[in-house]
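Budget justification note: compute hours in this period were largely spent on complex prediction jobs such as the one shown. Inputs:
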Amino acid sequence: MEKRTFTIAVTGLNNTDNPGPGVPVIRGIRESNDFDVRVIGMAYENLEPGIYMPGITDKTYLIPYPSAGTKVFLNRIIEIHQKENIDLIIPNFDAELYTFIKSEKILAQHGIRTFLPTLEQLDERSKANLPAYGEKYGVKVPDSREITSLTDIPSLRDDFDYPLLVKGKFYDAYLAYNSEQVINHFNKIASKWGLPVIIQEFIKGTELNVVALGDGTGRTVAAVSMRKQYITDKGKAWGGITINDPKMMEITHSIISKTQWKGGMELEMIKTTSNDYYLIEINPRIPAWVYLAVGAGQNIPEALVKLSMNMDTPSYESYQVGKMFIRYSWDMLGDIGQFEKISMNGELKNMEE
Amino acid sequence: MKIKPTIAINDNGFLFDPSTGESYTTNPVAREIIFMMKQNLPIDHIKTNILERYDVDEVVFEKNLIDFIAMLQHFNLSEELA
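Corresponding output:
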């Protein structure tokens, strides 16, 4: 049977020291044996490495940040769609998900598919709602509270022991050992990500992560767990290894089943020395380390495309334990002409085309 | 005391715990001890075996063996013999 060719748009091409998941997602879908793909990159900044990396996108377009307004954002997506005839968009940033989910119907009217959680699913797993989430779905979570002002900080001593974590609503987390440090982190995070800022109990233990894919009916299509072996000063995994932790898999399957999660997700958990598992965060998208899962035998990006396209997508049953990834930096050379094209025209064809 | 059956050990004495992703390297004598523990041999047997083949003071070896076994327990790599 002839393979179908899909045109898939992907964001998150910022393969920097704080990497977006776009490039590993593209690597996964390009490795599919069941379909061919033409990849359209969507970049927010003209120096996102994925724009220039050979063999990643076929063509990349600059798009405005969702903060520019849904209308401006959607108009640009539709404009690109009119040129490229996009079958599917895979958004890879937390901050853009709200806009994409809200626009799901409009995109569908234009023939663009997405495979995303619902707004309710997105909201209930937000950092601010985590305590209620833990209670509702029977998962241990650290105590947390939203704060919106510096005046909330002195009273934290009543409810939390130091150290505690100061977290942004989308990204960033800092450990604070006293209220002075909370003030510093609060100001830094609020200016970058806005309010509220989340204060979270610090749970001591080993951080473990799971990348998973839910089909929206409660079925876990794929799930791979990993322990970070090397962490950057931004808290990002620079190296990791797949592990076999049945309890984490049980928690993952339970969450996906109870929430009927649709799309990719990353569960961040802490395993304490007394073998308790605390869910510290749910990222509502595929994480940047997803290529480890692909290498370990579960091509999650490919499975997400198949689900979107209503192709037969059986659940993965196992993966290779002990598979490792190590990130590295590499000085890629480009030409000012490429930079000129993406900056002036807002689009760039890959050099290999 | 025996090595947990889930722990992977290769011929070089490299240990991998698949439940945590932690790995450990061992020196040649530790490797021998681990292989004997893997065969569920009792500690007394291991002690005799090593003392017969190496020029080592019994008290010194016993102290090191106790430390080593405590380390295996600390890293959750061993369990009691059934």
